[in-house]
């Protein structure tokens, strides 16, 4: 049983194979958070809450005389504004025009087999085989008013993850105004915890950053309307001594692709509260009688085996229970994308020449990137006009796709459906469809504006244009791009909607369109993208099984980007391509082999003019393709181990994939510095079977030797050299 309820003691315990999570309803009806951590059977952790009279820690109004009862330091399951708790809150709401004030107490609960769903929002799901998944709903009610909050818990016992969401319901007669509705809050007892977050910028996403938590509030988030390049909606809290292989680690991931907020507060007594959810900057959402509001889902995971254990847990859960696409268990096409090969300067002949090379190299697909529609020879015009520019292309989309198909390749295409250029027919017809503040010139990003996806007619137009494109040719793949931060958020329909609410309506609109596309075209491979990895989040993974990880295709910078991404996301979702050198983003020159090894870390492809490959590189590309095909299952479904961090070792970075049955492993190493008179370096493998014997370049070693002693690495022969080797178990 994943959910255990002690009715007498009013204790709710969520049990997974890796963790225990516990809450208790106290004598006042307050839902306390008593424990989250390593699996602990049959323990009521409420003894850890010691009632004490602390100065300046007050009592809720109905708790007369007992100065030892204060919600200002008790660990709370869903802290709210207005009941004497001065720490960060999960919920702030009240009747419209009145002071926001709540005091939630236990009302009821229910449990059922399977996983709850959230209408219009991405959420983890249970597959038919997942008989272990259960849901707990706990409903809380305001002490004074008909305001209800139901906390949802999805318990994936075998996967070791717990999901959370909160649904607010107004059953009163007045209008309820929500100012902040977070998905989850977790209170940790006083302990030295580090916070790991993944910051970045365009072309440099998800950089690993770890620091201690000082007293006060540490906050990350995005106010850009997207999850953003700058911060990722995934954080890890871990014990100060946690490493890749040991220590307590708590991962918190938000299934949301818009603005978000995650705050960690170390309070006056050293306890830590983490809350995560929707960005609440200028957020105001009104609920009339009978209406509800659902917070996006948060996923919590605990590992007592360090960061690796945490990543493996999340990666598996996302691979099996978040990504829905029919592609998740299929080999992804090895593709060539024309962006860095041609940018906007192409016509059918140029594309067909690349396709011919791709076919003779043995690739699976050609993807036509930006510039094929409307008037679009640079990035200043055309967005919104999703009609093929036959004059530029020299043929119809169908003809192009057919000719590419005739070569034995599939055809994919780029779209950016959420955007509108001022220089477009769409804008000339519907200038009010773009977000803009009346009477002001809108702020531009990449010289484009953002469509108001809160409007049905806009979403309908998006759906029709996507249908029109997908039905005009044999298209197997769409790269769904989104190339600016959202700004001037104001709807022409109702300029009074708060910006925070409109940002959220935008994301709900986006999810509606993505849902439409994924349901209508179940075989279509959708790749997410936002100037690379500006919307690399678990919300998007529900719709798109892979996401273009970064516009930075330099293999060496990708080491850190992909390293950071691997903490919270499956590597099969990381789209990565081999591009030319000097690299277009930073000018670096790296060997072709190294570019291949880095790109094979995820969904593999090329992004260059194949016709310009040297004979040597052509041969290497053939090797890469054969290698990727051969080990496809391992790359997609194997366990991914970070072996040597690009932050801790200046000389090389290493990672590996190990088959779930431990019969096969792949070790990849990229050298990042060279030295005269070097001594042989080694890397210790992980995740092998200690007793099993593995063949490595003709010699046989025990798994234990490879994990404890390590593999001796060949010495690098040139700058940014690399090494990839397969280890196969030798059957006794
Ligand atoms: C974004 C994407 C790129 C490319 C361009 C096209 O920047 O991340 O890969 O598709 O748009 O304009």
Outline the structure in words.
- The chain is an alpha+beta fold and 732 residues long.
- Helices cover 20% and strands 30% of the residues.
- Strands 6, 7, 8, 9, 11, 12, 14, 15, 19 and 20 form a ten-stranded antiparallel β-sheet that branches. An eight-stranded parallel β-barrel has the order 21-22-23-26-27-28-29-30, surrounded by four helices. Strands 5, 10, 13, 16, 17 and 18 form a six-stranded antiparallel β-sheet that branches.
- Strand 11 and strand 12 (204-212) form a beta hairpin.
- Helix 7 runs parallel beside helix 8 (499-520), helix 10 (555-566) packs parallel to helix 11 (592-599) and helix 11 runs parallel beside helix 12 (615-630).
- The two termini are 39 Å apart.
- The mean pLDDT is 97.
- Residues 339, 369-370, 379, 414, 481, 483, 529, 531-532, 548, 551 line the site of alpha-D-galactopyranose.
- The site of alpha-D-galactopyranose has 12 residues, from loops.
Alpha carbon gap, first and last residue: 39 Å
Low-confidence segments: none
Give every kind of bound small molecule, once each.
alpha-D-galactopyranose
Overall form: globular
The description of the largest β-sheet is:
10 strands, antiparallel
The fraction of residues in strands falls at: 25-35%
Oligomer: single chain
List its salient traits.
single chain; about 725 residues; alpha+beta; 10-stranded antiparallel beta sheet; 8-stranded parallel barrel; 14 helices; about 20% helix; binds alpha-D-galactopyranose
Please give the structural blueprint.
Layout: E1 3-6, E2 11-15, E3 19-25, E4 31-38, E5 91-95, E6 104-113, E7 133-142, E8 147-156, E9 161-170, E10 176-188, E11 193-201, E12 204-212, E13 216-221, E14 234-239, E15 249-254, E16 260-266, E17 272-278, E18 285-287, E19 292-294, E20 298-303, H1 306-321, E21 335-337, H2 339-342, H3 348-361, E22 365-368, H4 390-393, H5 397-406, E23 410-415, E24 419-420, H6 425-429, E25 449-450, H7 456-472, E26 477-480, H8 499-520, E27 525-528, H9 538-541, E28 546-548, H10 555-566, E29 574-578, H11 592-599, E30 603-606, H12 615-630, H13 632-637, E31 639-644, E32 652-658, E33 664-671, E34 682-683, E35 693-696, E36 699-702, H14 703-708, E37 711-712, E38 722-730
Parallel strand pairs: 21-22, 21-30, 22-23, 23-26, 26-27, 27-28, 28-29, 29-30
Antiparallel strand pairs: 1-2, 2-3, 3-4, 5-10, 6-7, 7-8, 8-9, 9-19, 9-20, 10-17, 10-18, 11-12, 11-14, 13-16, 14-15, 15-20, 16-17, 24-25, 31-32, 32-33, 33-38, 34-37, 35-36, 35-38
The structure holds alpha-D-galactopyranose.
Residues 339, 369-370, 379, 414, 481, 483, 529, 531-532, 548, 551 line the site of alpha-D-galactopyranose.
